[in-house]
Write a structure and sequence with these properties.
This protein starts with a strand and ends with a helix. The chain is elongated, with a radius of gyration of 16 Å. Helices cover about 30% and strands about 40% of the residues. The protein contains three helices and six strands, in the order βααβββββα. The longest helix has 18 residues.
């Protein structure tokens, strides 16, 4: 599991004084990028080599709103999603531990140099295997 800390900025608020719904997707995307970087995956370098990571589905369930100045974390965990897909199970929680939102974000890697064949990168496969092994 990977954790990223955040603080709500005033520019992220809507007219109701809470974080606009679009920012929750941005928080999760930022956390996913930090997580794969921690795994040693440089997705910009991968793209230069024709190996593109794509988010293909996103499900986000809101539980409560964030407000100006609140501290929160986004936790991310890699989970299997079939043979060639993987997912990030993510949770946004306030500093008191209360859950703000949960997400399930499905990804795939497309090999542009091999007829756009989807595949599961080895580092991600190993990280998923490690997560599954630690749960047993």
């Amino acid at each position: 599991m990977h954790i990223v800390d955040f603080e709500v900025r005033d520019s992220e608020l809507d007219a109701q004084g809470v974080v606009n719904n679009a920012y929750y997707f941005i928080y999760m995307a930022h956390a996913r990028h930090k997580y794969i970087a921690k795994l040693g995956i440089d997705f910009v370098e991968m793209a230069k080599q024709g190996q593109n990571l794509f988010l293909i589905a996103s499900n986000l369930e809101f539980k409560q709103s964030l407000k100006s100045g609140e501290n929160f974390t986004v936790t991310s965990e890699l989970v299997p999603e079939g043979k060639i897909k993987f997912a990030f199970k993510q949770t946004i929680a306030k500093s008191d531990g209360s859950v703000v939102a949960t997400g399930h974000n499905i990804c795939v890697c497309i090999d542009e140099t091999n007829r756009r064949r989807p595949y599961l990168p080895e580092l991600i496969s190993k990280a998923i295997t490690h997560n599954v092994d630690t749960l047993e």
